[in-house]
Amino acid sequence: MPTETKIGFIGAGQMAEALARGFINQNMVEAEHVFCTDPVEARKEVFRSFGTVPVDGNIAVAEAAEVIFIAVKPQYVPVVLREISPKLTEKHLIVSIAAGVTLAVLTEAAGPKAKIIRVMPNTPCLVGETAAAMCLGHGAGSADADLLQRLFESVGRIFRVDEKLLSAVTGLSGSGPAYIFLVIEALSDGGVRAGLPRDVAQALAAQTVLGSAKLVLETGKHPGALKDMVTSPAGTTIAGVHELEKAGIRAAFMNAVTAASARADELAE
Amino acid sequence: MPTETKIGFIGAGQMAEALARGFINQNMVEAEHVFCTDPVEARKEVFRSFGTVPVDGNIAVAEAAEVIFIAVKPQYVPVVLREISPKLTEKHLIVSIAAGVTLAVLTEAAGPKAKIIRVMPNTPCLVGETAAAMCLGHGAGSADADLLQRLFESVGRIFRVDEKLLSAVTGLSGSGPAYIFLVIEALSDGGVRAGLPRDVAQALAAQTVLGSAKLVLETGKHPGALKDMVTSPAGTTIAGVHELEKAGIRAAFMNAVTAASARADELAE
Lengths: 269, 269
Hints:
The structure is a homodimer. Chain A is of the alpha/beta class. The first copy, chain A, folds into 2 domains: 7-165, Rossmann fold (3-Layer(aba) Sandwich), CATH 3.40.50.720; 174-268, Orthogonal Bundle (ProC C-terminal domain-like fold), CATH 1.10.3730.10. The first copy, chain A, contains 12 helices and 8 strands. Chain A has helices spanning 14-25, 41-49, 58-64, 77-84, 103-110, 142-152, 166-174, 176-193, 198-219, 223-229, 236-246, 249-268, and strands at 7-10, 34-37, 53-54, 67-70, 93-96, 115-120, 130-136, 156-160. In chain A, strands 3-2-1-4-5-6-7-8 form an 8-stranded mixed beta sheet, sandwiched between helices. In chain A, helix 4 (77-84) packs parallel to helix 5 (103-110), helix 7 (166-174) crosses helix 12 (249-268) and helix 8 packs across helix 9 (198-219). The two termini of chain A are 41 Å apart. At the A-B interface, strand 7, strand 8, helix 7, helix 8 and helix 9 of A face strand 7, strand 8, helix 7, helix 8 and helix 9 of B.
């Protein structure tokens, strides 16, 4: 059953579109209960095309919706919140998806009335498979968390963490898609090196990555145990695994997550 | 519309079960048109539980079905084929999913009548997302290839390649799940290193891997282009990517695929 809550988007970019389409497609909200605004008229037309209601200006969104997604570039978030601040009431829930903009900054800019939640989604949101985390801020309670949980489970998965862990989330799932794109490209190159046509190699690589992750998620088995199950003695797989271990790829991925996490801490300062 | 073709499984292990369930769930074949045998009675009971028809012995499968999946361990494949050989006709299509058993060996053991196809699936078949390849052997034509294409698209994706490329496929998609399990474990470790609880880190890691691969498959964009789209100047993601490049992970994955592929060549000799 769709929520009666009206949902607004300030900023109607790709991530906002992915969220709005996901919520509507999964019957979490009716399209006519979704409002948006954007300085680019073409983006409003895209939102109109799937039944949502574009309005003119940020204040109009605050007047139309109770849950307001702030989906503008991080540097504009405080500006937008200060603009709509006079219209915000205790019924408003501000959901910021801006990287590095802290709850303290959001609260200061939005004023004391609205409830606040920060979310760190990632780009697979565009295909309904985001890995996201949220942290509750000023005034937000478990009913708000439940609402966000239901909304985000229509476009992937979401976990609740303390704000201090959002940098770690940024380093892992926020930045992680880039690491996996690189892996898919390298696996494709390996397939081409071994003789496969590029299109077959890339499709096999991407499909293998997808299927393996799904196997972890659906079986609930430890990835190490799943690795053990497919490595026959003196077989092909352990020969490949050996090469990855020789290169220290475990440490490399840990370094990637911790370096990106540290950079997120720096940017949030 | 389900095919009228009767499908048999010699060997009713996990991969056979994943295939049979996929074909039936996707309405490719009716359960009562699927036959199987296995020396382990419990496996036959599993197959009976979803409506298929267990029979006693390999010859009974050959008598009941036209498309026969050979899903026993590689060393038993020639034995099984020699046993059923007297029952095989021009209407039979033998589909071997055994690694390293060549078309020449299959043809020699099955005799001159049956049509033969080799398939290299991978374990995400168990969750309906296999990345597979097939090569046509003795007597098999485009109608047989089309049938296998339809069947396998109910449990993932399949590509047609020359037999000489099956080792490359083995090195990439056959062995690839193990590489990705290792990546998911390492990303989880990175998340834990950065402060996340283990369960959140592993779920974010696996979901990020799944979503990123789906983004490659559904957008059809080059993984390099997708990587570029998410790497902001001096941002978190490029900091993580830098660590992966410092460790040479591209070469490591290419080495993994080529080493596993070379091992597959050795084993097929």
